[in-house]
């Protein structure tokens, strides 16, 4: 028996990746697609400008797109994947939760809310039980679960590995982000060819807050955020997919390069359907990871790390993840798999 | 009366920029061009694959390229601009100095030597008098003067402005560097299209050491390097020209964004021929500076800064400079102008 | 005395280039700017997202943008430069002509109309007098003059040179067009990085019809279109500016490569203010012209040609022009200069 | 039983693709790797700078690279895949044939030789028996078989389909070629970012001659080349993989767009291991095929076509193939499979 799933914002860049991942998924079945009013009522292949390099699945092409309201989604749908602009998500997601749907959302609204689990299953799966707190407080039959921002997801697993091994104090990160992170039309070609843009609205604050919540401790009632100071600077560069990040961190205990590699390599993956075989791929070559060469490892669900060096009192390293797979659609699907494994579905 | 100047490594990417700058220069006159053995004896326009977007000057096109030895350079040449691979520079530049030539060099060898002035004229012009120490120690009639690495030049002027205003403690920098920094063939298209490379050999160490020497104090006998800790991470991205950098710095005194802008804007330029009108252009828009839009300001000799924010105990900002103009050829020419102004020519 | 000029569609990509060209222009003075309803009433620098690599002129930054109607343009404006979407141009331009304005338009509507002059001044300046026919027929005090599409302008001057020398029979052209030709947001980065798109809506037909009208004869009453067959295929590639084209043509008389070069080189320019010094720059190097290296020749107003080869019964060659300067804004300004020289202003 | 195969030029861009294809191949087994003198004696993963986005197979990584001479290749190797610079191939390939090896070569030397089969199996498999003529004339135990140039392979299958259906008279083609076609270091980033190069040395002549040989008739003794006139213009653009081409052709019989599509769609594939399921994928959308979206169809072995339009007396269309898979390594492997099927191995 598969779980019947709906996709909110199915025509967007992340929505298309959700379709790519869910169509062959053994546990989930695409049962509803929604989009903005303009698209509602159209066949999916007419509503969406499909632009990823695998063909649009036939079964999905013929589905009719609905409006993004609980009324337009069949009752036998149990799980909702949401990839909406945050202003829309803010309004619509609670309505779905109230109507009894479990929502695994990639939208940025509500990520910092006290009673909303923000999870990367391999890092903080236990936070998922914040759902109990949420249901108590909000009186929902459904639930709202969030995955973090793509740039946050990229660095948190290696940071979690280092935190566990050495303790972290201060984190500084600079990102080189791919254009797909802004959605299909988010970055025009005239803006980015032969160029880089040292600003992505709101992204720095997201990295600074989300990472501290993800690395925090959940005691059954609330999440105590991690105490590390985080400073981020975010840049857009002319790559299609794959966010590359330079990270520096002060560690509480002394750490050698070899110990750091070992901490990352031995950091466990899960056996959820979409989990990578190896969570963190650590490269020995100093010029890796690179977006084009390394973003697709383990179906785009691995984190790549490299360039690990000791600094005075800490470490610096580079990391990379596929931003629309590991960093968005895949993150939501993985959260869905966690919800299923933990009995919420 | 113009100073007769020779260019070592005249066919390379920086060599071509030197020609572009020197051909119309009112104080200098191109009197000799040298290149590797393969090119020696050829007309310049046959030896060089000209690839910048201004035409090759006619007078230069017809010059004959010589070998890179003092013997192949006429005696009435006084000033040598050198843009050689460091291994070649290491061997050849001292020979020129010994033969009595003043060498303004962009090559990375000898930059950290105690008796070699490493100068950005607007920042530490006084270091030029290290030439006296050098001549004492080495017994040269000539002299060797260096400009720093392109990635160092980009961040040092804004850092110098902040250091003067607030005192600097700890500097962390991430670079997004253009392909021209690696020379014409340094980065293949297959390496960099839809990609970024988080490693530039030796570059991080150059930024960490050169910036401390540049920000240091010269007491007439030696340079005391600045005590700040510097951590750098260097990346190559698919831009043609213009290095963009994210910088964080802890400051000794408290600093507001407005004070930081004021410190940068009021940091003085010089009235050397190639000096920019305004040394540091500070942008109010959070998404500037950008390489393609801002690298050419003041003939590619300005530094652009923006995105200034307060952090806990410090500041973060972005900066940008044209790497082959301000960061290489223009830096050497400016040092030549300083040498002339200070009476060394 | 300068002519007071208005710009319709002043915030778009071509509108910005018009401002760049007109602000320092000795014969014209920017007296009005219009844009869509959203922008009307705003300061220009608030309404426009300025994105070319020269700063926005101060005098223009402070101007107030009006709506695109004759009522919103001061009466003492004599000349209107129009760069509107064709559907808007179709509606609005006749209203301006009726209200007495002379309109030099880059919009694609009405280019094929019998009584509308379509001119490249160096090629068919005499067609401008079609204005008399137009005024007779339409009863306008003003007049409507068009420049051709950017891809057409690129190939027509060299074709005109060859037509005059050898007579042309059949023309086949493939284009490699820059993204700026689609306007600022016309091509997203996700569409074009590591990609090419073999389709530009309507462009092939524009090249096929406009070139025959431009190469046609005007007898004072009507233009007889050139009889050559024209086949075009249009592609978008990841370049910012500069359309490159491969052209084959059968010639009536035999033509050698040398004769073809001579025909192109000796094809006269005009002495209008914006005319290039040399209309067609012919390269000897087989790998030129190239967009990045050659688009800016003669302030972006020259046509570059190269790769000329004999074929069986004809010639093949490559040509290039800056699409938003020579191919759009500069083309409209040049037509404005022609209108002034011919006494229409 | 698998055929033991050697790869000449195994460290190059096409050599790496050969390894990618042969390592999992059910019929062939990689038994020898050769490269230039510099690499001979090294482990493969030390000799090669691996740069495709699948990892280097472990079994291959550890192999020792030999020199490119028959002496350095084990005797039990039967089949040689060659991807050498043509000047090296010209010297070395005959030595291998003389030593009894069957050579399936991607190198451009000898492609036009009367007694050398030049084959695209789906198009002219029967030409393979030219081997008999070759052995008679040259007295070889081995044999030399060539696949055409990548740009030729892209257009010949659709042309063959049209030729069969309507007869072809005159062919004009413009190419937009990816940088990988020039090898790993063939195109520098400074040459091609924000640029296009309208010249690829020798490529136009290759397309003009090879296509006529491929479309020719083999009568058991010699190949009569096709009589069509072919005019080509070749351009390099900033794409990584996938050559896109605009083709015009005059047809002997009248042809509608629908008939042309049908001719292409029904043109048969083979059931060789590497054959695509469908040889020519015909797109209905006018803006397809596009390199990034369509180059990987059927494991990079399909030809994509689209934009088919009627012209006066003929047709125009666009086509695309993955240049290092279908156009190089895959083409050689397919020829190897044909040699096996026809009993030459």
UniProtKB/TrEMBL annotation, chains A, B, C, D:
Active-site residue list: 150 (acyl-thioester intermediate), 243 (proton acceptor)
| Pfam families given in the database record | Semialdhyde_dh, Semialdhyde_dhC
Q: CDD domains per the record?
A: ASADH_C_arch_fung_like (cd18130), ScASADH_like_N (cd02315)
Which GO terms fall under biological process for this protein?
A: methionine biosynthetic process; threonine biosynthetic process
Q: EC?
A: 1.2.1.11
Q: Name one GO molecular function term.
A: aspartate-semialdehyde dehydrogenase activity
Where is each Semialdehyde dehydrogenase NAD-binding domain found? 4-131
Asked whether the keyword NADP is assigned, the reply is yes
Keywords tagged on the record: NADP, Oxidoreductase
Q: Does the keyword Oxidoreductase apply?
A: yes
Family assignment from sequence similarity? Belongs to the aspartate-semialdehyde dehydrogenase family.
**PANTHER family according to UniProt:** ASPARTATE-SEMIALDEHYDE DEHYDROGENASE
Annotated protein name in UniProt? Aspartate-semialdehyde dehydrogenase
Which species is listed as the source?
Halovenus carboxidivorans
Q: Give the source lineage, highest ranks first.
A: Archaea, Methanobacteriati, Methanobacteriota, Stenosarchaea group, Halobacteria
